[in-house]
Amino acid sequence: MDKQELIRQYEAGNRDFRSVDLGGLNLNGIDLSQANFLRANLSKVRLFEANLAGCNLQEAKLDKADLTGADLSQANFTWSRLVGANLSRADLSLAALSEAKMSRARFFETNLSHANLDWADLSWAKMYEADLSWVHMKGANLSRARLFAANLSESILTEADLESADLSNADLREAHLSFSNLEKAVLRQANLKGADLRQANLTQADLSGAKLSWANLTGAKITKAQWKQASDLEGVILPDGSTTTG
To answer: Is this structure's pTM higher than 0.90?
Structure first.
């Protein structure tokens, strides 16, 4: 389907575009809100500042698509592919992205607040200054992801894989990281105040200058030398269950 036919059908009231092939089209600025793109091919499509709010994109292919600045709020990307896609400055608040394949995707300053990314693949993703507050990322693969200065406050990262991820200057206040893998993760200057790190694997993680006050490290794999790198240790529950005094 070409762009003109897509617009004609949408304006005529059609919202069902399941399995449609739009690969490579220039759809910058288009309004396709509430449309159904189940299993559609949107690979390499250009959707700069497009409106796809509330769209159904389950199992859709969006590899290397340009969604910069797009409105994707409350869209459903469950089981979709967004490998290498650009979602910088897009609004993905309340979006469903569970089990989506998003390795090497870009999320610079993207709003993902309250989104569901449980078991999603975000390995090697670049998420600088992204808003991931209150996000659900249970079991997500974030290995080697770049989350510099990202907001992950009160996020659910239970059982997530964050091996070798860069979380420098990230906001992880009250984040749920129990049973997560943070081996070799970079947490320099990160704010982990009140974070739940029970049974987390922090082997060789860099905690230089991190704020750990009131964090729970019960059963975590971490050495004394590591947590001593932190700048704030007030009230920390250590792996053996004892509590620091500051």
So the answer is: yes
What is the spatial distance between Cα 123 and Cα 178, in angstroms, rounded to a whole number? 19
Question: Measured between alpha carbons, how far is 89 from 62 in angstroms, rounded to an integer?
Answer: 17
The Cα–Cα gap between 77 and 110 comes to: 16
Q: How many whole angstroms separate alpha carbon 197 and alpha carbon 116?
A: 21
3-class SS of residue 7: helix
pLDDT, tens only, 90-125? 999 999 999 999 999 999 999 999 999 999 999 999
Q: At CA 124, angle to CA 152 and CA 181, rounded to 5?
A: 60
Distance from chain centroid for Cα 14 = 32
Cβ proximity of 77 and 60 under 8 Å: yes
CA distance 61 to 104: 15
3-state helix, strand, coil in the chain (%, to 5): 5, 20, 75
